[in-house]
Amino acid sequence: MDAPRFVTPAPAKVTIALATAPAPVTALAPATATTTPSAAARLPATTPELAPESSTTAVPTTVPTPKKTTPAVGVACTPPGDDYATAVDGSTLKCTKAGGPSAKWVQSVSLLGTRTPGAPCEVGSGVATSPDGEEMFCLGQGPDTNVWTVVN
């Protein structure tokens, strides 16, 4: 009479996939302590299982929008986005690096809007922008020949 064979259980093989969708997990069936080769052949080799659902939850976050400061002489600004502005008292301000390494609002002559370069103007009337968005001043070209000139 043959002595019973003892089979040491094989280590289980587990595959876990980290994903948002369920993924199959494979696990080997442990061998029994007193199986014979013919009995072991009848056991299924793998048992399909599903990985647990993802438990990640989106958490809404609120990022406060920085309040834009009211333009005033001496207050920091960001050129070229804050090129010209109107102060509380109605005066015109220009964002520039005049007198220091960082930009700040300074008093300016009036911004007259869009003008055509080379068109006649009155010296000291204000500043204007060209149709391309370039800054212009009225400069004298001689007696009675003042024209809008793009500043480079």
Topology of this structure?
Blueprint: E1 24-28, H1 37-41, E2 46-50, E3 84-86, E4 92-96, E5 104-107, E6 111-114, E7 127-129, E8 135-140, E9 146-150
Parallel strand pairs: 6-7
Antiparallel strand pairs: 1-2, 3-4, 4-5, 7-8, 8-9
Total count of strands: 9
Structural class: mainly beta
Shape: elongated
Main β sheet profile = 4 strands, mixed
Number of DSSP helices? 1
Please explain how this structure is put together.
It contains 1 helix and 9 strands, in the order βαββββββββ. The protein has one helix at 37-41, and strands spanning 24-28, 46-50, 84-86, 92-96, 104-107, 111-114, 127-129, 135-140, 146-150. β4 and β5 (104-107) form a beta hairpin. The strands form 3 sheets. The chain has a 4-stranded mixed beta sheet, with no helix packed on it. The chain has a 3-stranded antiparallel beta sheet with strand order 3-4-5, with no helix packed on it. The mean pLDDT is 73. With 152 residues, it is mainly beta. The longest helix has 5 residues, at 37-41.
Features:
four-stranded mixed β-sheet, three-stranded antiparallel β-sheet, 152 residues, 1 helix, 9 strands, single chain, mainly beta, elongated
What's the gist of this structure?
This protein is mainly beta and 152 residues long. The protein has one helix at 37-41, and strands spanning 24-28, 46-50, 84-86, 92-96, 104-107, 111-114, 127-129, 135-140, 146-150.
